[in-house]
Amino acid sequence: MQGVNRARGEPGLESGCHYDALDKMAVELDVFVGNTTIMDEEVYQLWLDGHTVNDAVKVRMEGGVLEECEASADVLMSDTMDQYRTFQMCERLLHSPTKLANQLLFQIPPHRQAILIERYYAFDDVFVREVLGKKLSKGTKKDLDDVSAKTGVTLKSCRRQFDNFKRVFKVVEELKGRLVENIRQHFLLSDKLSRDYAAIVFFANNRFETGKRKLMFLTFQDFAFCGGQLINNWTVGAVDNMVEDMDVDLDKEFLQELKELKILIADKDLLDQHKSLVCTALRGKTKAFNEMEANFKNLSRGLVNIAAKLTNTKDVRDFFIDLVEKFIEPCRSDRWTAADMRLYLTHYTNSAHILDTFKHQLVWDRYMGVIKSCIFKMYHD
Amino acid sequence: MICFVSKKPKRRSTIIVIMPGKLKAKIVAGRHLPVMDRASDLTDAFVEVKFGNTTFKTDVCPKSLNPQWNSEWFKFEVDDEDLQDEPLQITVLDHDTYSANDAIGKVYIDIDPLLCNEAASVISGWFPIYDTIHGIRGEINVLVKVELFNDLNRFRQSSCGVKFFCTTAIPRCYRVAMVHGFVEELVVNEDPEYQWIDRIRTPRASNEARQRLISLMSGELQRKIGLKVLEMGGNAVVGYLQCFDLEGESGLVVRAIGTGCTLDKVSFGSAPNTNTHVHPSTAPASNACNSPSKDGKEPVFAEDLPSFSGPPTPFRVLPTSSSSPPPFSPSKPCSRQSSSSDTDLSLTPKTGMGSAGKEAGPLKTLLRQQTQTALEQREFPFFTLTSFPPGFLVHVGGVVSARSVKLLDRIHNPDEPETRDAWWEEIRQEIKSHAKALGCHAVVGYSERTSICEEVCILSASGTAAILNPRYMREGCLDTGNTEPRFDEPSPPSCGFCHIPYDELNMPFPAQLTYCYGCRRQKVPDVLFTTIDMPSEAAVTGKGCLIQARLCRLKKKAQGEVNATAISNLLPFMEYELHTQLMNKLKLRSMNALFGLHIQISVGENMLLGLASATGVYLTALPAPGGVQIAGKTPGDMSNEHHILTIQKRINDTIAKNKELYQINPPELTEEVVGSPIPEPRQRSRLFRSHSESSDELSELDLSHGKKDAFVLEIDDTDAVEDIHSLLTDASPPSGFYSCNTEIMPGIFNWTSGVQMFTSVRVFRLSNANLTNQGLNKIFTDLCENLLKSFYFKLRSMVPCCLCHLNFTVAVPEEELIQVAVTAVAMTFDKEQILEKPGDKTITKGCIEGEEQLQFSMELCADSSGISTQQLSKISGVPESTNVSPRDRCSTWLELIRLKAHTIRRGSIKTISSLERSSPLPEGRSRSLRSNRSFGGSSVTVVKMTPLSFLPGTRIIKYLGIINMFFIRETTSLREEGGVSGFLHTFIAEVFAMVRAHVAALGGNAVVSYSMKECMLMENPNKNQAQCLINVSGDAVICVIETDQEPIHTADAQSE
Asked: Which molecular-function annotations from GO does this UniProt entry contain (chain B) (predicted)?
């Protein structure tokens, strides 16, 4: 606890605290315990962000809290240390939030408990972007100082966030039932945060590649959305909701069936037929028609090949990079608008139903539904 | 361990042992247990349940951190004496096939609350499993019941059924039928920590032995006190104060004092006014003026206004023992001190005092037999109460205190606690004689404490000399309503208690007397110091505030008698200086009375610490304090003169600022209004003569300079300059904050439901060995001031709020360490209603429904001039207004004129009708809404804690029993636990948790009158070790939100 040790023998703190009258002595011990645990949300955030006590005092002073309350710097110091100590004592309970509600040590009103938990499990988008899809292992944890240096998030905060990911991962890994629901129940998080964690777990489990330079334009929220789509449509849980890992692993049978889609590009007639159906529908409706027509076969090959390769774990990992390379980049270089994209993919999907020799309508819909919404989400600058 | 409790009556063994009770316990489940088996990350837990010498075990619940035992009912057949003394001891263990079972932790359950049929009937709930080394380790769910057989045997040694209350007021849902008086007891034992066996046992075993022993001794003490109360014919102890003295090698003393009472439970139909403190609406200032003139001593108008010279102080400590201060004569403070008896007393209890103790024995028994004697004949007419039912307190004389320095004897026989008894007896006699000298027959707000350093022990006692209404001491007296007309000496409630109890011609100490500013009929002193809470009916001007005097005195390190002599020589100086500081600070705040005065003097190896805390207030009945005037010793020195002028200006500015801050605008009631006589010089001199005849030693110094004159501070050396500077550096609380050390803040009535109890501890290490007294004083003052500043900062979100019952305790745990521990409660109040001027209220609140009532209640709260309350007294049908003497009528008429003017100014022509009283206050409604939200919602019962006897916005419907817990915590990994701060922070949080859990298990939702009596921290950072002992107490209660809050005034009306 660096907070406490600072108190001793270090009265003149570099943060400009003056123990003017107190310079002849040192604060050996200084505690304040309320029957209802007092927690300042601002200090909590500073603690979560991994600031040292001295930094936190500095930030608070700059925030002008002293002027508001006619207090002095050492009062602020004492308060900050007390709060830090309280948070450290609470941290153990925050690791299993359900305990927080029925523990006896701290009397914290329920709405405050909810805030404490939600904030503790909140994460920085810049940070999560760095570790998304990585294995939540000791090795990754070792590299967190690089992540910290790169993102500007303190190492302490990085570690907390990483440990949170890992903790949630470990708990829900072995549970039956809906992933989001499990997270919400075991960690008492809000719906939004539970979904984000579900995505993080899903990405970590399938080790999706998200760190390549080509993917840097995508935000965490883009990935979280896509992850949610995959969880809802491509996992075992999408068909059966009572198996372990149902929302974490992709549906193997479905991936197998995806191979059948290859006929769309392998069968020359089918490919041409598909192209003409799409082109008929699109003609006159978009400025990018010429490019679409020219690129149709390429694009279709791209999407169908992605589908066909998903049985390989390696190719699953490259799912997003493939989507970008095989589809999004060509379209972007042809200057498709988002509306163009929407138009194209809608007709591309629907036209396949009219192909009389194409028998895999169900698989096609399950595949294209996700692909469509992912691409819509990902198609931005 | 050999646990051998002194003075245990052996009578029981001679009669047939009757089994009067059956204790049943059931172990249900555990949760959050620690991992005891590293290999499996699990625990194989089982539980041992022990009471007396009987032990039961549950099955082992293998491999679970949340075991479900669901045991059978373990039944203990025990006698009621054991039931009272022994705690139920529950030990959770981890089963180990190959080695000894590891203890996880323990729970001690005091089953006393189950022995009283009015308190709890079952104990059921989750208790933290506590280990003295590891702290809380999981929780255990336990059910406990007691079946008492009602065949009472005549030789009973138990006192089952006597109720105990820490609250120093009559508990809220009871009515007092009779106040029997002082009860005290102490028990002595060897401290297990100092027994030979301690060398071979583990720290854990030693701590547990101590915890268990103190628990046993507390139980025994309580039982014995209960017996005394039964003997008196009472059924309850109110203001129960238990302390323990760790005397090191010479032993362990657990002692308790309290007030024996007969209490009647009040049924809810006629619920008493739970809000007497919150809304002292029955405290009409002007009541004084039209109260019935049944006064036996109808004041004679021609009576002289005495004008005494001498230090204007009601503070009385006679110099009759080692403990006494100098006779307020700084010129020769040692004169009394060196008297031979003092040193004798301080040095050895074996000489004179031993015999005195023996003599007192038979006398005591003799007096005990006379159960219904009048107060005067009681051995100790002491009352630990600090607030009283209306009419109980007739007059207040002033603070009486006594201290004595003792050497703890090395050889100690636990079977004879007589020495300790004699020590206290001696102190109490002294207190009694001080009270007598003040013309009082009783001492209220009485408390005792000790400070021990090595072999030296300072015993202190203090209280407030008072005259009480004897009716409360007689049988079958009390119906608050109908006693009132029968008062022997009816005094107006708003000022009566201020009237001097002593004979003004034979004053115990020099003081300036004036006619009461309330009733103009009786004499009042110019300043009043008391240890009690302000009577709720007292008339106050403005707000009160916390006033502290702080003092450090270095002393040489010494041993034995030399040390004791040195300390007892220092004490009077300290008392005197503390008193002077208090007086100066009081004047600076333009106030004239102190309530809740507590003076603590702590002894360390090389210094003494003195801390006096009180709540200053301007009592309307007392004269306005004069200013503080600075006088130089060497007139003529120009630079000095200039300096004095600057200081004088600063002082005057401070006084003006404080007047504004505390809203002290006393009504300009000048002499002309009532026609009070101005003393003539001739009479004055007569009085003066008689004074100098009667008061022997105290009139030597004349500090007062005529009536209304300023309090003079002489600057004769640099010390005085320093002192004045320190006076002026006391910061006032930031805006929105008030603070006091009494139950409630004088001048604030409209509490809302926000309550935050807290404990804060600071230890400072003095690094510079060459400190002077001055330097130390500054450090100590800054320490206390900084603590207060920290509280204001931490609690800033509660503004507007008041820190109530700020209780500071200081200690010198080691050389060069100063420890200050504070427990207090922050309570929110409705700012609008108190700060607005009457004229603004109607405007801001005009839109609110129920405007009339609101105005009414606001008037009550805001108007200290008491005009509206006068109306109230008429409304509620107090017979006072019917029987008016011509003079009274005159003043009433005057008041009516003023009232009219006031009403018009307020812009409201609504006259207040009796109708309004019967509708609930809107404020009460909103308050209950707010508290509704704060209760419940979580799976753990919310337990509120407060050092006060009530929780605002709620009504106590049941007292479940006393909470008295003692814990030891030790660590050998101090650094890992976050240093001393981390260690103590955790421990205090754990203590809170255990208190809350016990209260919740009793079915309660709050602790009132909570206090932390002891917090002893010993640390050795070099060895990475620390140990701490904490003793807390309070009353477990069930309180409900005041939804159908009865109109406060109807309750009063009913009782009349």
From this structure: calcium ion binding; calcium-dependent phospholipid binding
